[in-house]
Amino acid sequence: MPRRSGGTYSAASMADIAFLLLIFFLVATTMDVDSGLSRKLPPMPTEDVDPDQSRIKERNIFVVLINANDQLMVENQQTSIFDLRKKAKEFIANPANKDDLPEKTIKDIPFFGEYPVSKGIISLQNDRGTSYNMYIKVQNELAAAYNELRNELAMDKFGRRFDELDKERADAVQSIYPQVISEAEPKNIGGK
Amino acid sequence: MSKFKRKIKVGSQEISTASLPDIVFMLLFFFMVTTVMRETSVKVAQKMPGATEVKKLERKSLVSYIYIGKPRQNFQSIYGTEPRIQLNDAFAKVSDIRDYVTSEREKRDENERPLMTTSLKVDQFTKMGVIVDVKQELRKASALKINYSTRKVTEIEK
After folding, report:
1. Which residues of B touch A136 (CB under 8 A)?
2. CATH of B50-152, one of 3.30.70.260, 3.60.20.30, 3.30.420.270, 3.40.30.10
3. B152 closest CB neighbour out of A35, A42, A141
4. If you average pLDDT over residues A20-36, what whole number do you get?
5. Of the candidates B128, B129, B143, B68, which has an alpha carbon nearest to the alpha carbon of residue A136?
6. What ipTM is given for this predicted complex?
């Protein structure tokens, strides 16, 4: 039997095999970026907290309630989700220095000098029967209110959007509009 | 005598395909390295609610996940249709969260522990009751940085 010449084989199919593998990994790769709303939970209260200390003046609190039927009550008024952002913005900024909206304290802030910073706190309370979807919508609207105010301020002062600022400038803007959303201890009113 | 010789065209030349496997291999290695095979299979329904103000979650190695939602169809006969919590690969009770947080913390470097984030991957049809419980447990475990996982949408729907 005649021996076939040479021990070499054609490398032409190597490209095909590599392509096959490539396509497999292309399909298997999921470039999912995790994104979401970041929040910080308050630490567990310690026993010896003076109850008087945690009292905040009524005008400084923006009460947002969501009930088990996903209805929204803002400052004792039933509100639709689409009005929440506007109301929250008015509360946080208090542009006309109204008496029933939060007080302001003068603080020394880099780049801005003496600047009145609002003492307002947003208090969010939900029921155990509230849907998660609604809760996220409300959280989103409140975050949007802060982001819009920060953007407006950054545009006014630096001519750029808030997320395009460098660290120090962003920190300055952030200390003028700190995101204070407090969540009350959960209650169970509307049942499951 | 001119310094540059004029090139003489020799018929029509073909591009050599010898380097094609190299290029393909390069791409292949890129995708092989970047592919992360999921280590946990999610056993609960996961349809995230939409939000507009989302931020990207950085440092994935410091993120631990808690999945909450209705059990998937093939688990419903055992676990029912009420929203359940899933940690790692198994269904869990609210009281298991503290142990989970501790074990996750043990896995990380000591100086990175304060930066750890817990990502709550919650299905949008879940009621807040179970989430409130989970959040209370996280507070007790002092895992205070959380992230509500959401989809990015341009506008919230009614």
Report:
1. 49, 51, 124, 148, 150
2. 3.30.420.270
3. A35
4. 79
5. B128
6. 0.74
